[in-house]
Amino acid sequence: MLRQNGFSYEQIEAIVRDFRHAGLDAVEVAIMAFAENVIRAPHDTSIADADALRSHGLTDQEILDITLVAAARAFFSKVIDAMGVEPDPARFQDFPASLLDAVTVGRPFPPSR
User: Fold this and answer.
1) Cα 13 to chain center, whole Å?
2) Is 2 helix (H, G, I), strand (E, B) or coil?
3) Which residues, 6 or more positions from 111, have their beta carbon under 8 angstroms from its beta carbon?
4) Contact 53, 66 (CB under 8 A)
5) How far apart, in whole angstroms, are the C-alpha atoms of residue 42 and residue 46?
6) Residue 96 and residue 14: Cα distance in Å, rounded?
7) What is the mean pLDDT of the chain?
8) pLDDT digits (tens, 9 = 90+) for 21-64
9) Would you list the domain boundaries of the chain?
10) Per-residue pLDDT for 107 more than 50?
């Protein structure tokens, strides 16, 4: 999705490694921080977190969308990992090795056979 929106592989890797210092604008950083909190510590997500997004001009619907997308992605990732699904290496053949390293969580990629 990021590539489709004009981000280079280098920019994507910078975002994955540290989105706070990857050249994103303040709204994008706030969205990423909120989504990270939803995934890592949903019990700590509060009205203050939503208010921080509202201060950047986001609507309640947009905040709900961010919450649902982050939670759905985390759910999907856990399901495919638990089922042992392996990504198609052909889909990632153009990815630099450093980007694959940055985005790989759990099982090593590419899968070794």
Assistant:
1) 11
2) coil
3) 86, 87, 89
4) yes
5) 9
6) 13
7) 89
8) 999 999 999 999 999 999 999 999 999 999 999 999 999 999 99
9) 25-95
10) yes
Specify the DSSP class assigned to residue 87: -
DSSP-derived letter for residue 21 is G
Q: Which residues contact 67 (CB under 8 A, 6 or more apart)?
A: 34, 35, 38
CA distance 43 to 20: 22
* Tokens at 28, concatenated: 């994008």
Q: Distance between CA atoms of 95 and 91, rounded to whole angstroms? A: 9
Is this structure's pTM higher than 0.85?
Answer: no
Radius of gyration of the chain (CA): 16
End-to-end CA distance of the chain: 28
pLDDT at 2: 63
Helix axes 26-40, 60-82, angle to 10 degrees: 50
